[in-house]
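Section 3.1: Structural characterization of target chains.
Under the original work plan, the team committed to producing a structural model for every single-chain target entering the pipeline before any wet-lab resources were allocated. The record below documents one such target. The sequence was received from the expression subgroup and is listed exactly as submitted; it comprises 304 residues.
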Amino acid sequence: MNHIHDTEDYFVEGLVADESVLSLRRELTRLRGVMEETIRYADALDQDIAIRQSQTDPVLQRNRKWKDYHAGERCFVLGLGPSLSALDLSKLEGETVFGISRAWKVEGVPSIRYYCLSPATFFQSGARSTDEEVEIFWDGVLAKCPGSIYFMPREQATREGPWRKLPEDQAWYLKNLPRGLCHGVSGDLELASGIPQVLNALQWPILVALYMGFKEVILLGADYDFLQKKVYDYAFGKKTGKVLEVRKRSSQGDLYWMAWNLWRSHISLRELAEKQGTTVWNATAGSQLDVYQERPFESFFESR
């Protein structure tokens, strides 16, 4: 009998313990909800403060010039995927072209009108670049694209560097707001206030193009096939189609996490474009970025 009583006591104690655990879980869930709400409020407050600060920043207020500057027109945005080397880029002659990063290295591009340089790699030495590499980059880009209009991070407006050689009408600066693009865009896009933080260089020119009022934004070299290759390939150098530059390999988990946020960011861009009546086309052959409508590169020139 004692054995039976011991067993009954065990089950009773187990039930009490389970109820305590459930109660604790409910309290933790409540606290997590409170914490998440507090974080959302703090994020919104940071965003509002950053926007208010921008309203008194003369460097950023200059950007109002570009509002609907190209209303109703079309533009091409050059990514740097290997597929770019297979295109006849001479067809871009007379078109408005956006370049990013090392687009000046891609052969066959007639002219880059707008150059968007978001990564800090191109402005200061650090884990991914040295002072010498920064100098080499700017020597190359200024020699190849001397007449381009450059969009750069706001903090670079007060730092010394080769980009300060640019005439005032070619140097423009954008401020990254605290809220990331992957969390969506609330309200209207305003370069004079700041832009959502992007996750890769291709997203900056899309944001600028939308602000400028382009009716069609056409993406080239947006391969986005890193999930398959597990490396980042670039279309630099000769048109051989070979892998010319490869970054450090990432783990599968890192790649999937990055892809999830990247795709969410592009969905935000697509929704922003749709809201203002702009179509973003992905004219990259074999692209894995399926967020935008796809269309062959050659089809944009068939009516000519």
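Residues 61-301 form a domain with the sialyltransferase cstii, chain A fold (CATH 3.90.1480).
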